[in-house]
Automatic annotation (TrEMBL):
Pfam families: GPP34. One of its GO terms (molecular function) is phosphatidylinositol-4-phosphate binding. GO terms for cellular component: cytoplasm; endomembrane system. InterPro entries: GPP34-like, GPP34-like_sf. It is a peripheral membrane protein. It is found in: Golgi apparatus membrane. This is GPP34 family phosphoprotein. The lineage of its organism: Bacteria, Bacillati, Actinomycetota, Actinomycetes, Streptosporangiales. Keywords: Golgi apparatus, Lipid-binding, Membrane.
């Protein structure tokens, strides 16, 4: 099953019962970065001096990637990554990708009611092999001496930035994951942005008395 990096992140980011392993907002930002990662690997864009440069405007042939590339191609000047990536944020991308995974038989879309009042949409796995294939590839990449391909490095880097390595693969070598993440420029920028955002959140809590001294 050929999947986008974003789809592979979703398979790692949910439990077999369809519950998210990390904060959904953080996951959505990571999915946006994954679209850029696939476009970079396909040689449609590149990161140059902190800006996203379109190197080939030809549509890759995937609706999710085509849309992202088209928006970038319409820009008169290459946008700074730190501005463009947050502007790509939308929870709708996660919904679209989960629906795609459901159509391909990897997950099942279910609506559950609890307390007889509230409805919740969950996506339990339908085909364990899809998720297991991604897990095996990541674990193989984290083995000492392994030389994973660029796409797997990008997947590991983004999963590491989002905290998914620890949550989805608790026995995985996180130091090795950090080492691989250091090879990926885009994933490195995402990790730095998440750390800065976390620091700012803690700072706001401290100023507001939300953290005990």
């Amino acid at each position: 099953m050929d999947l986008l990096i974003a789809e592979e992140l979703l398979l790692l980011g949910y439990t077999p019962k369809g519950k998210p392993l990390v904060n959904l907002e953080l996951l959505d930002y990571t999915l946006s970065a994954a679209v850029l990662a696939d476009l970079m690997i396909m040689a449609r864009i590149d990161l140059r001096n902190g800006r996203i440069v379109v190197t080939d405007p030809a549509p890759p042939g995937d609706t999710e990637l085509d849309s992202g590339l088209d928006r970038l191609s319409m820009r008169e000047q290459p946008p700074p990554f730190e501005e463009w990536w947050p502007a790509m944020y939308t929870p709708e991308r996660r919904a679209r990708l989960l629906e795609r995974l459901a159509r391909r038989g990897a997950v099942t879309a279910e609506t559950r009611t609890y307390l007889r009042l509230f409805k919740e949409e969950v996506f339990p796995e339908a085909d364990p092999a899809a998720r297991e294939s991604v897990r095996r590839r990541v674990l193989a990449a984290l083995e000492p001496g392994a030389e994973p391909d660029r796409r797997t490095v990008a997947l590991v880097s983004l999963a590491h930035a989002a905290g998914l390595i620890a949550k989805a693969l608790p026995k995985a070598d996180r130091k090795r994951a950090a080492e691989l993440a250091g090879r990926d420029r885009l994933g490195g920028l995402v990790a730095v942005a998440f750390k800065q955002a976390a620091g700012e959140s803690v700072g706001r809590l401290a100023k507001g008395g939300g953290l005990a001294g």
